[in-house]
Amino acid sequence: MTKKILIQLDCDPQPSTFDAVVAVDAGADVLLRHGGVTPETVEPLVHGAMFTRGGADLACTAIFVGGSDVAAAEAVADRVRRTFFGPVRVGVLVDPNGANTTAAAAVIATARHVALDDRCRAVVLGGTGPVGQRVARLLAGKGVRVTLASRSPDRAAAVARRIEAAVAGSTVHPVGADGLLGSALAAADVIVAAGAAGVTLLDAAGRQRAAAARVVVDLNAVPPAGIEGVVATDKARPDGPAVLYGALGVGGTKMKIHRAAIGRIFTDPTAFLDAEDLLAIGVAGVA
Fold first, then answer.
1. Contact 176, 147 (CB under 8 A)
2. Where are the domains of the chain?
3. How far is it, in rounded angstroms, from Cα 60 to Cα 133?
4. Which of 204, 209, 232, 237 could be 244's S-S partner, Cβ–Cβ 3.0 to 4.6 Å?
5. Distance between CA 205 and CA 221 in Å, rounded?
6. Is the bond preceding 224 in cis, omega lying within 30 degrees of 0?
7. How many Cβ atoms are within 10 Å of 251's Cβ, its own excluded?
8. pLDDT-derived band of residue 213, with 50, 70 and 90 as boundaries?
């Protein structure tokens, strides 16, 4: 039986141990790990995946693109995509810093309690970071009216415009830490905090302004909480009219999506799994 080989392309000097362990648990027989990968150095590695096996055996080779620098990993992923030609390709999973699987898991948790459509209003705190951008993009793709908050109004505006360009018909409102954010919180059905570890983005006063919210998700697992009052282990914990989710509360779904995605790229050599694809995997029954 042909062994399943996963080629881990990581932009960091040392490839992620977390991603390696998940790959093995998801069924990879052989893991080839490469660190310090750049768009300029990745092509020979992709050729090695493409040209060493033929026929049905080629499907038993797949690529994972990761790293802590999401922009760098996306540039590598783009070069990987452009290296393929015709039917000579392998399955690819793109999940730098876990941003795509985490965002997908957060949206799936939210959808258990709120209809994600154009009647729903969401505020994404830390919206210019890797996970925040993807949460905002996935929500916008469902028709949700998204407010994207950042300490830098200019960055928030730039990210909002990129999401609107990528998601047809979407409207994303950028705000800074000003009165507009307070108004958005007061009207929000959903609040997701996706900021840097150990930074409180919504304190007790902010929670009071957001009293009408029905789902509150904090993706920060490192104390202090990103949203005051949310514990990392919260999983649909009732809190007045809202339910609360912490980072570990959505972590189980994230891991299921990650493992299922590894399985998918070994069965479909045309798969190139990004955030939207990972959300679809979760919605299809993984969660």
1. no
2. 5-98+253-286, 101-250
3. 32
4. 237
5. 21
6. yes
7. 20
8. very high
Give the tens place of pLDDT for each residue, 19-33: 999 999 999 999 999
Query: Cα separation of 270 and 66, whole Å?
Result: 19
Give per-residue pLDDT as tens, 86-137: 999 999 999 998 999 999 999 999 999 999 999 999 999 999 998 999 999 9
SS3 222: coil
Cβ distance 275 to 134 under 8 Å? yes
Beta carbons of 133 and 156 less than 8 angstroms apart: no
| 5-98+253-286: CATH, from 3.30.429.10, 3.20.20.70, 3.80.10.10, 3.40.50.10280 | 3.40.50.10280
Q: Which two tokens stand for residue 156?
A: 């928030």
Q: Which fold has domain 101-250?
A: Rossmann fold (3.40.50)
Longest alpha-carbon distance in the chain: 62
- Whether pLDDT at 196 is above 90: no
Output the 3-class SS for 77-134.
HHHHHHHCECCECCEEEECHHHHHHHHHHHHHHHHCCCCCCCCCEEEEECCCCHHHHH
- C-alpha 202/C-alpha 181 separation (Å) is 11
Residue 286 to residue 274: CA distance in whole angstroms: 16
